[in-house]
Amino acid sequence: MDRWPSVLQHIYALVLVLVGWVFFFSPSLGAALRYLFAMVGGGAGVASKEVFFVILTHWLFYLLAVIGSTTLGSRMLRAILNVSENHTVRTVITLVVFFGMLAISVAYLIADTYNPFLYFRF
Asked: Measured between alpha carbons, how far is 55 from 71 in angstroms, rounded to an integer?
């Protein structure tokens, strides 16, 4: 695997983490296998009406998540935070950006009825 391109190494790691979380999340091995089967389109097909509804209503959130998880997102954040040479102005900009991200995240968690935080189930 060391000779694989970095993109393939990254995809491989993401798949392993995703499958590992399924086994961690599931109450039994059978439930984990059914969940994995459903993840690859087994049973109900690739997408339902609910999937399309969620994608259409949350497209901006998904776009920001994709941009934020790439180097483009980190470069944009660095450019925003380094707008001024003044240390105080940079500190204020940093606080506004990060508290803004926190406020948006909390707003999404409050508005949603599903709680993705896994440990609340234990």
From this structure: 24
